[in-house]
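Take a careful look at the sequence and tokenised backbone pasted below. I need to know what the token row says about the fold.
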Amino acid sequence: MSRASLIRYLVFARHFRSSSNKYLRDITSRTPSISANNVKEYLAECKLPFSNGHSSYIVSPCPLCSIKDKDTTLFVNKTTGSSVCSTCKFTGPWKDVSQLINKQRYQKNKVIVNKNNFKPQKASKTSCYLFWNEKCISWNKTSADIKQKAIETFHIQKLKSSLIEKYGLRFTNAKFPQATGEAQELTCVVFPWYLYSTKSEVSSPDRVKLETLLPSKQRLTSFEPKEGPLGLFGWNTIPKEATTLVITGDEFDAIAVHQCTGLPAVSLPLGASALPPEILPQLEHFNKIYLWLGSDAHCRQSAAQFARKLNVKRCFIIGPPSEKQLFSSALDALNQSHNLKDIVSSAIPASHKQIMTFQQLREEVFSELLNADQVAGVKWQRFPELAKHLKGFRPGELTVFTGPTGSGKTTLMSELSLDLCNQGVPTLWGSFEIRNVRLAKVMLKQFSGINLDKHLQQYEYWADRFQQIPLYYMGFHGPVEISTVIETMAHAAYVYDIQHVIIDNLQFMIGAKYRGFDDTFYAQNFAISQFRNFASSKNVHVSVIMHPRKEDEDKPLQTSSIFGTAKASQEADNVLILQAQPRREKFLQITKNRFSGDVGKVALQFNKDSLTMSGHVTSVQSLQPQKNIIQPIKTVKKQSNRSSFKSKYLKPVPLKNQSKASLSIGQSKTVKSISEECFPPCE
């Protein structure tokens, strides 16, 4: 079958809908490839007026709306083709849009609206409206002790109360699962999220985020509704005529920027981890966007990646701190009494000229010297010896990992990737040998550090925490074409800003279709070259698990033991070997390290209960319920006869014939978003 005739789909489906399959985000390639030229040609053929936006084609009026108004707008993403209307809330892939437009061309007297998308959106928004207005208390009406605790917890002593009220922060009580199996009611601060709207005034949020008033390491997060779309914090404060915007990675950073500069400022729902494509239409009309996500290497790298999504020509990045100004965020700069106006005005354009002087690079060079550990990459916390040799995890590299059959390669790699993912590295797993449910079960045990088979009452507690990390799975199993895998990886890198991709393993992915010896080597070399090119061009770290040659099991493996030709070890930046000889302790050997040249061994300690090779174990006795350190908030219920209304809309609304697609960290959606492909999930 030719490349042009291959049908490739991409479905983001959430499994784990029962107690055993509730929290697994599955990515499967099923979406036909489209190009920007194809979309433009189709719109021109249909004689639909459209303009070329920064990240989307803007079709106005929307051809799908039942209300024919010039203010209706359909946004078509240039990269994915996913579309969203700001009025009727239609969301879906380009395939659905083109089909609906075709029907309207032949049925001019009938207006076709995808009602399956509209009804769940309305119910979800209504439940948030009730929660926001009946269970939350505004900042000004909250008691002094609760406000003081919030000020101390988030270090916002210098933020004005009037601006905190303007941004809509509220308080509420919410129940969180505890390790004991019971739910504990805790006081939370509520951050409102807003979606794009054509209305001049934003009345109530579309979704809210809840954070407990606990120290950062113990802080718990929840969402209301549990499932739904993402939005921007601070969107309700943006003037309709604004053309300049500051985007931050934290809610209080946005308030600090607005307070000190007067510029409109919002924060991303996932911080520096990802820029969800469904919020791109909200940012189309801004001519200048400042990205201030943080000062460390990871945040600056995310800012550069987000700028490519937003169109680098209009983006400016708040650079690293100078020798005289050392701060970690906008709020930190305010607390240190720095001039935020000067910091914003010194932002550098995201699109640099090809020829630069040292003066333009001076601050970045100083930052790399000052933060040498950050430049070296994210450190493994469970494997400090590995971090000592490799210096850290860095995007844009290719790692080859091998070991004897049945030695625990997948188990070790799952813990290595989980260690990074738990620190905010968005990770995509491609398990072609083991089913995703089995892999997720292993990773959940490694994440918790306990044997959940013996402590089922703690499942909800750990599953809720596990759901918060940016972990995704490909829905493939068995042999798959390399072009399909690469296309899935590219889509995930764009939609979820993936930084780490694991291929487990290369031989299973290629399969037995290449019967000839030379053909097998050719297929493996071609796959390695594709992964190498993807890692370099997309700035994503790719880890490939490979089987070794058949050798004497009593002898340790070498770099030359990797199955196939020498291309794999030559292209790789890092080569890791799991040594597991009989009657000897297992250890991880580093035989190649292109970054620093350090090689060596890392001792492993396998724990049968937690399935960890780092020896990580959580003491069940140490898991005590979180204490609510302040008095619960007392909400005054409004006198209204809406009990039946509440019981109807406060419950999740199931969708018929529609998958619950995973969009972000810890959430699934009850409606289709701009990044979701509307097809049934693959088993």
User: Anything to note?
Assistant: Residues 103 and 383 are 58 Å apart (CA to CA). The chain is about 30% helix and 20% strand.
